[in-house]
Each structure stands twice: as C-alpha cells, then as structure tokens.
Specification:
By secondary structure, this protein is an alpha/beta fold. Among the domains are: 109 residues, Rossmann fold (3-Layer(aba) Sandwich), CATH 3.40.50.980; 108 residues, Rossmann fold (3-Layer(aba) Sandwich); 94 residues, 2-Layer Sandwich (GMP Synthetase, Chain A, domain 3), CATH 3.30.300. Helix 1 packs across helix 2. The longest helix is centred in the N-terminal third of the chain and has 15 residues. The structure holds methylmalonyl-coenzyme A (MCA) and adenosine monophosphate. Methylmalonyl-coenzyme A binds next to helix 5, helix 7, strand 15 and helix 12.
C-alpha cells in the first residue's frame, strides 16, 4: 500500500499548515518530524492506546501509529472507571500515548506511558526511506509503512444494545477507501481547510475530521470545544472552507443564526457544511438555509462501516435524506424474512445492509459477534430505511430500541442500566431515549429505589453514571417508580413505561 499521507513525504510542500489546535500549529514538515520520531518509539508494538484529547498531541499520536503500522485505540479522556477498565482489559495496549501535561487516571497506572513530543529535536529535510526507521538529530526518516492494506489502523470502541462496548477493528484499507470515496463525492482537496469541534475518540472526529484532511494534504482547524463564536471565527476571517458537525451543533448554530449576521456570513462563505452521526431535523436544515442560502449536506456512516452514503453537494437540497451510496459501497434494503427489497418508492421499509472496501475487519476478539453482524458479505447496520425514486436513502429508524443516539453519540441502554444497578440506592433500573430538540434523544432513567423514603437524587445518579461510564452517557432525566412493568417471564416491558414507547 502506498503512503497513507502523501503530503508527509518528500515532494509535498513541507511548509503547508497541517493542523491548528488552539495554540499548537504543525506544518507538514513539523508533523512528519513529530510523528516520525514517535513512530520510531512505538514500532513493533501490538497496539497502543491514545489519550484522545481534542488537541495536536492526539493528531501526532494517531499519525505516528499509522506510519508505524501499529493499531491505535483512542480513549475518551473523560471515560469513567468501569468503561476504561473494560477497554484496557479488552484491547491490552502495550503503551498509552499522551500529551506531556495530561493527567492520566489511576486506571492507566499499569500501562507504560509515552509522552508525545510536538517538536522533537532534529533538523534537515523530511524524506522517506525504503525500510526501517531512524529518527533523531539530522534528517527525519519516516518509517516504511506496511505493505498489507489489511493491517489494522484503529480499534474504535462502540456501544451495543447490551453489554460493554466492542472494539471495531478498522484496517488501513477501510479508512483509505472511505476517505477517498468522500473526497470524490465532495471534491475534497489539499486546498480545503476543515473546521470542526468533534471529539477525537470516534470515527466522525478522528477518521473524517483528522485523517481526512491529512490524507488530502489540506488543513485541520480544531476548535477544542464547540462554540458558535469559534465556528464564526474560523469559517469567517479564518478562511475555513468546510465544517463537519453533529446535528446538535447545527441545531445550536441554527438557534444562534437569527441574531448573528457574522455567523450567517461565515456559514454562507464556506464551501461545504456537512452533518452526520444522527439525523439533522428538517426544521434545522430549513433555518440554516433561510439564513445563509446554503444547504447542509448529510452523510450516513457507522463505526463498523465508516461512510456509506452522502448527499452530493450539487444535487440540490435533500433535507431528510442521507443521499446515495458512495463509490465502492454496495447498499441494499432487506425485509424481516431476509428477502431483498428492490422498490425505490419512498415507502417500502427494510434494514440497510452494506458491503464494500469501507467495512471493518471484525470486533476485536469476538468472532461470534462479528459473524452475527453479517449476512454473507453484507453487514447488517440495524438501521431501517426507504429508497426514494432517485436512489436517495431515507433513514426512518433503528431496529433496536435499546440504542440511543444523544448528541451524536451511540449509547446502549443496557450499559447504563448495569451502571445504575451498581448504585447502592437502586433496586431496579430501565433506560430509554426520548426526543430532545438539542440532543436528538435524551437519556431517561426509570428507577425503583431501594428505599422509597430516601431515593438517590437525580444529580447523584447522573454523576454515578458519568464517573463509571462517561459524562455523555449520564441520564438527563430520572423518573421514580414503585416497580418496573414486566411480562410473565420477568422481562422489563419498556413500551409499558408511563409515556414511553
Ligand atoms: C455535566 N458534565 C458532567 C456531568 N454533568 N461531567 C461529569 N458528571 C456529570 N454529572 C460535564 C461534561 O463533562 C461537559 O464538560 C459538560 O458537562 C457538558 O457535557 P455534555 O453534556 O456531554 O455536553 P453537551 O452540551 O451535551 O454536548 C453536546 C455536543 C456533544 C458538544 C454536541 O454531544 C458532542 O461533542 N457530540 C459529538 C458526538 C460524536 O462525535 N459522535 C460521533 C460518533 P465540559 O463543559 O468541560 O465539556 S458516531 C460516528 O462516528 C459515526 C461513524 C458517524 O456517522 O459519524
Ligand atoms: P456509531 O455506531 O456511533 O458509529 O453510529 C452509527 C449510527 O449513527 C448509524 O447506524 C445511524 O443510526 C446513525 N447515523 C449516522 N449518520 C446519520 C445520519 N446522517 N442520519 C441519521 N442517522 C445517522
């Protein structure tokens, strides 16, 4: 396989800015130097974890891992004790790469730490060598990258309906195929300056938002944290050309647009506004288009499949659809009985199945779960959709009601229920999602307390889940019941919860 990042090697413009995160700026030469030196240090490791804060250290760490051919496991820096212990036990990284100033939790005590140096000593031009690795003072020699495209690039943890998150193994082939298909659909080039504020421990922010611009030889500006002001600044005077975000971010931009001509001007001036990870409500599409004259392009992906479809930027407004399959992606709708649905009538609903070079290699250490996720070489997404007469895919729901999408994060009801049941004040717990204008869905915990006279407070339960799993998995609403509705077998009937279903 040829160089994953052609712009890092000789021949490209070494002075071109690659990354700007807060106060840290790296040119392509600087990135090659920092990532080349780190690649040297981790070469030969089976897997490394990356403490994936929203900064330049994460970018250098993941680029280094790709150069060295060592799979990287991005860790949510806000991850709670229970979730961190699971991910570390499951992925057994031989080291954790972190920024020198990052304070790591006790859960990482047993994992050797390697600090990421953004500016290692050394001078001279960057060039590649055919084999082996040598860095340090003098020219930076980038390691020869793996020839085998099936070598894993990343292991990204994702929630399922029950049990703890599974590690999705993404090969170099899958990442390259998906990014190159997006580049074709969006005319994404080295001239683009991508602006975003997405977390760097999931596919959206890390694969599309970091590896995407670097593979093209373009620039990434990460805002650190999402803010309307940051988007206005970087897309406006800052010269950003593309914005990636989840619907919650576009909803907040749409809210702000009414009284903010600078924001309207900044969005109007961008070449491409892209939303994904969850559905962008038509109302938010309409508000943004009315204020800026621009349409937001939706694309549909999944950790296991990377990107499947996208609205094509010049196809006109398509609110409510996620567009057409990307180059190389096979997509079909399948009925409950397994038969393939051929109708392009905007009405016939089936499960989306996909195949192509964009697919993952399997769940780490879980061959049965991997086998269960496939129908032959077709991956079952669990998403339900119809196809419009022009081929556009319209997502209409999910097969599993126990998967919640909140703020663009996929969250399994089961893992939150287990965390709640660990709390000494909780006797029974059920978790559901309900519509939320900002988050898409908000997490609701239905709790039967051990002592109805002094139940745990809502804030206590939210903090308990945040500390055990992650803050974005905390319940936003807690409802107390005397008993959970159950069937004769004792199974909780979520549809019978008051006001649910
Ligand atoms: C609040 N906080 C707490 C607690 N309450 N922390 C601990 N315990 C508590 N009880 C803190 C949080 O840590 C955070 O701190 C702040 O309060 C707000 O957190 P949160 O509620 O999470 O923020 P939000 O306002 O709801 O965030 C909205 C958001 C976020 C910025 C849109 O949801 C987000 O970044 N979403 C992106 C999801 C994403 O990238 N998904 C991609 C996966 P502080 O104030 O310090 O921040 S899907 C994917 O990859 C596929 C392939 C695809 O298709 O894209
Ligand atoms: P994740 O497993 O966290 O990678 O999330 C993948 C899921 O996000 C998909 O299976 C879809 O349900 C959802 N998703 C991603 N993009 C979109 C979109 N543009 N519109 C609606 N749902 C989306």
């Amino acid at each position: 396989m040829s160089a994953f990042f052609p712009a890092l090697t000789a021949g490209a413009d070494p002075g071109r800015t690659a990354v700007r995160c807060g106060a840290d700026t790296l040119t392509y030469e600087g990135l090659a130097r920092a990532a080349g030196a780190l690649a040297d240090r981790i070469a030969g490791a089976e897997r490394v974890a990356v403490w994936a804060t929203s900064g330049a250290h994460t970018v250098v760490a993941v680029v280094a891992a790709l150069l060295a051919g060592v799979p990287a496991v991005p860790l949510n820096p806000r991850t709670g004790e229970r979730e961190l212990a699971h991910v570390l036990g499951d992925s057994t990284p031989s080291a954790v790469l972190a920024g020198p100033a990052d304070a790591l939790p006790a859960g990482l005590d047993g994992v050797p730490r390697i600090d990421v140096d953004l500016a290692p000593a050394g001078a001279g031009p960057v060039r590649t060598v055919p084999d082996a690795v040598r860095t340090g003072p003098g020219p930076v020699l980038l390691p020869a990258e793996p020839d085998d495209p099936e070598v894993p690039a990343l292991v990204v943890y994702t929630s399922g309906t029950t049990g703890p998150p599974k590690g999705v193994v993404l090969s170099r082939r899958a990442v390259a195929a998906s990014l190159d298909a997006l580049a074709g659909a969006w005319s994404w080039t080295a001239d683009d300056v991508l602006v975003h504020a997405l977390p760097l421990f999931h596919v959206h922010g890390l694969v599309l938002g970091v590896l995407g611009p670097l593979r093209r030889g373009g620039e990434l500006r990460h805002l650190g944290a999402f803010s309307v002001e940051g988007v206005t600044r970087e897309l406006g005077a800052g010269g950003g050309t593309m914005l990636f975000g989840v619907p919650t971010m576009y909803h907040r931009l749409a809210d702000a647009l009414a009284g903010d001509p600078a924001l309207a001007g900044a969005l109007a001036g961008a070449r491409l506004l892209v939303s994904g990870s969850a559905a962008l409500p038509v109302h938010d599409h309409e508000r943004i288009t009315a204020a800026t004259g621009r349409t937001v392009v939706e694309r549909y992906g999944m950790t296991e499949t990377l990107m499947n479809t996208s609205v094509l930027p010049d196809s006109g407004p398509r609110p409510g659809t996620v567009g057409v399959p990307l180059a190389g992606v096979g997509l079909r709708l399948v009925d409950d009985d397994g038969s393939v649905l051929g109708a392009y009538d905007g009405e016939t609903v089936g499960e989306v199945q996909v195949r192509g070079p964009n697919l993952f290699s399997g769940y780490l250490g879980r061959p049965e779960a991997t086998a269960a996720a496939f129908d032959g070489d077709w991956f079952r997404t669990g998403d339900m959709a119809v196809r419009d007469p022009d081929g556009a895919v319209r997502l209409v729901g999910r097969r599993a009601t126990d998967l919640i999408k909140s703020g663009g994060y996929k969250i399994g009801a089961g893992e939150i229920e287990n965390a709640l049941l660990d709390h000494p004040g909780v006797r029974e717990a059920a978790v559901t999602g309900e519509p939320d204008p900002d988050l898409g869905e908000r997490i609701v915990a239905w709790v039967v307390p051990v002592d109805p006279g002094s139940p745990p407070t809502d804030a206590e339960l939210a903090a308990h889940v945040a500390e055990s799993l992650a803050p974005h998995k905390r319940p936003r609403v807690v409802r107390h019941l005397d008993a959970l509705p159950r069937n004769d077998m004792g199974k909780i009937l979520k549809k019978a919860l008051p006001g649910a279903g």
